[in-house]
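Q&A log
Question type: sequence-to-structure
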Amino acid sequence: MMKNYVVLLMALFLFSCTSSSEQQKETISSASVNNKEQLKIVSWNIEWFGSSLEGPKDKDLQEKNVLKILTNLNADIYALCEIVDTARFGNVVRQLPSDYQYFISDYASNAKNSNSSSWQQAQKMAFIVRKNLLTNIQVNGYLRNNGRLGYDLANGRYPYLLSGYISFNGKNQSLNVMILHAKSGADQESYNRRKDAANILAENIEKDFANEPFVLVGDFNDETTTTITRSESQSPYVAFSSDGFHILTSNVSGNYQQSTIHYSSIIDNQIVNNTLYSYYIPSSTQILGDVQDWIKDYKQGTTSDHYPVVSLFSYSSENKPEVGSLNTKENTRDSSALFAIENTLVSNEIKLQASQDLENVNFQVMDAQGKSYIHFSKRNVSSNRPFYVKCKELPNGDYSLLITTNENKQALLFTKQ
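Response status: OK
Response body:
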């Protein structure tokens, strides 16, 4: 949440939170507070939201479920695909507990503008943005005059770009969030069109946003490390493997390693440029398959066939969580191997499993505004048994568990209810 917070005298407030294994217990003596702030960006394909022709059959139930998920996620920016019913969408936004504004693309596949006869029933892209987060917001279709790109992207589904000014490290600069909803299909032609679109986008994005924080998110309809097209072995998004970009979803943390219900691939991706990567919280990118714990019939297709994807950014480099150097890919490539979290929706404790025996491990729990509630160290953590962080006294809300060792670091997201 992009607000300035007065630092309260929270040192007087103690949490009786502990971490334990089957044989050991360790007590956290106190909670600490700081003014570190985080930016939470969620991307999600909400399958044919509100469509009278496609997608989940019960539209009222889909709307109810989407509202519950967005409320629980409590993100600063939502970048969404497949919005059909704009009235239903506006109704969802107005019911969110925080104050948001939203923007919907005025174009779609085979619809040049909102006056086109096919626009109403078309899949559109949309942003939901927390009010007072950005100033001077502008939204538009990126490279909308490029006919070749329009053809590559499902006949006119140009990337949807939101730009505004945000305070990064005490300086106001542009933040650019772009939604990509690429052409679907595992056939050769679809692959070729995705690859050509990626080449055009990578070249132009690197030029247009070289010195501005930039993130590309959405439904890429293909993987970034390989491809769903059997006749090919290379990802159509290889152009984003250059030194100018970092593919956050090439190394997601957490239990879920697929972004849709029915397939094991990660086709919903997030890519940042070097400028925004300097504010990225390592290993914070997760596929939120835990929405199926919030919506019990999620896998039955009541809401969407995709899972949300989330990443966290610290927008003050001086106040970034203490997780080591953030300047190279090598520092974060293997960080997700430290711990697996059993369930990201917790009540009394967080159950972790170490992938290997670890020494000198630091743990820190921070909320979405960057306030630190729990901070402790463990000399030894065994991989032979679960490791628990007890958090019964933690207020309900979204948190990140930051874990560091001498060599690695990891951030795990969870929700306390």
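Response note: Residues 10-35+336-416 form a domain with the Immunoglobulin-like fold (CATH 2.60.40.3080).
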